[in-house]
Amino acid sequence: MNHEKLTVDRWGDVIVSPGETKDVEVRFSESYSGMNLNIPIQIRRGIEPGPTIFITAAVHGDEINGTGAIRRLITEESIQLKKGNLILVPVVNVLGFERHSRYLPDRRDLNRSFPGSAKGSQTSRMARFVFEQIVSRSDFGIDLHTASVRKTNFPNVRADLSNPDLVKLTHAFGCPLTINDAGPEGSLRRSACDAGCPTFILEAGEVWKVESSVTEQSVRGLKNVFISLGMIDGEVEVPPYRTIIESTRWVRSDTAGFLQFHVAPGDFVSTGSPIVTTSSLLGQVRQVIESTEDGIILGMTTLPMTAPGEPVCHIGLINKGQSRMEKVVDQLPNEALQLRLRNDLSTSFNVTEVADFVEDPPDDVPEPSEDEIL
């Protein structure tokens, strides 16, 4: 896309001139009663020409950590746009947001429906509206997400790194973890990339929450991108380390029981190191689940209990340099964002050393007796 051939100056009857910031509400559909349904958007234009970037959140209506980050951007007076344009959309899926739901009322997933159809389902029509009104005006996009329900994610960027523009943008964003992944069919980022608008996502935190450290990480990364493109003044904040993750693994439980974690989001693990212990309601140890790989904890369940086959932990595999990164993290001060994220994201569950929880962990998974109650 060439920003010189696109305009962000007219939104319905609203004209946004260079140097102006205006709030608009753009109609995308109507309710059963015939009332207009609108998406609130803030448009910021710099004095000088430059790239247009859309920042979206809550494409899944319950993932509102990104909403908090965009609202922080909107209220930060320090962000003075010199060049280019920002399209800030705190909530894309307003119908899901109103219902505290991931989905639209027709129970379809908006982030599997792009680029959509003007004659399709309710969700498909909304996807088409977003594509025509937001993506088509933009040179780049950043879409903010969280883990799905009952899970949390340590902040990680996901992008198709075969695209040189996305290599530059994600590097500038400054998240320590970048997963090389084009995204599923029908996702906003994949469809936008296919349409010539390089787009990546940030996955961080939990649904139904605006977590302060996640907001800080998100805003820091967004400002880094703006600075790197010359859109605002400032110095890019560099993360303590960077690594690209090419593949991930889910670790699943073989037994039912209550969970006692021994790691937190963002922790490094080695093959065979204990991740979580399962135990019965009466405290009998059932299984010590160990890491199947070397890597870093990307995500975890926030449920306190599990059943056989359920995922308990998501590991990002690190090909090289893990010991060096571990040393870097060990030397960080307690107030470092990396450590605050780790502590904040682990507040939904208990984290203890395995030795503090079970003195002699079983070697094999015990078979439950007929009268054992979990």
From TrEMBL:
Pfam families the UniProt entry points to: AstE_AspA_cat
Keywords annotated in UniProt: Hydrolase, Metal-binding, Zinc
UniProt-recorded Gene Ontology molecular function terms: hydrolase activity, acting on carbon-nitrogen (but not peptide) bonds, in linear amides; hydrolase activity, acting on ester bonds; metal ion binding
Domain Succinylglutamate desuccinylase/Aspartoacylase catalytic stretches: 49-225
Cofactors named for this entry: Zn(2+)
Entry keyword annotation includes Nucleotide-binding: no
CDD domains registered for this protein in UniProt: M14_ASTE_ASPA-like (cd06251)
Name by which UniProt lists this protein: Aspartoacylase
